[in-house]
Amino acid sequence: MSNRLFVFTGGTSGPWRVISARTLAGEGLQEVGRLHVRGADESPPAGASQWSLQGITSNERYVERAEKEQLVARQEGLARPEASCAALIPIRKSAAWWALTQDERRHILEEQSHHIRIGLEYLPAIARRLHHCRDLTQPEPFDFLTWFEFAPEHGNAFDLLLERLRASPEWQYVDREVDIRLTRD
Ligand code: HEM
Predict the structure, then answer these.
(1) 65-80 tens-digit pLDDT
(2) Sign of CA dihedral 137, 40, 130, 167
């Protein structure tokens, strides 16, 4: 499992410089200047840190075959040289969301909110990695750590994507969300 476990550390070191941090729901996170992202088996950053969030990549829960084919055909990987902008958006969903069944959650995520259909419109410009936090043995403050990388010219498209998703029924179940924007110096 360890190569699926990632640690995001907010503090004074790391290649990503924080350009903004906005709390959209629930409690915020302490302000930091830099972000360090690593696999759990790599060494932690040298400088002082204010917080550390962990999550694991996992199998998909909701994607159907036809959607998967479109995603695989269009999506790009992380660490593209031109993708000097990033966003870390930790998200927690409410108890009401987790009380739903798998098919009810899929219905809200896609049939009602079109999360995947909308997201596909922004590929390949936006690269992403979804980390899950709920099943870690150590309790984590968020359910998901979402990570996105893009070139500066796609920043406006990324904002529009977020506006569309946040207006959807799925987001009524988001009870904590912090939007941290970064640039690689
Ligand atoms: C889940 C696609 C952008 C937040 C998913 C899933 C897909 C997807 C396919 C379902 C994974 C599964 O089956 O388990 C995309 C695409 C995007 C995009 C193609 C375009 C860049 C975003 C954005 C956010 C976001 C901007 C906002 C932070 C999430 C969250 C989940 C998720 C929190 C987990 C939902 C849950 O399991 O309850 N996304 N997404 N996504 N996405 Fe996105």
Answers:
(1) 999 999 999 999 999 9
(2) positive
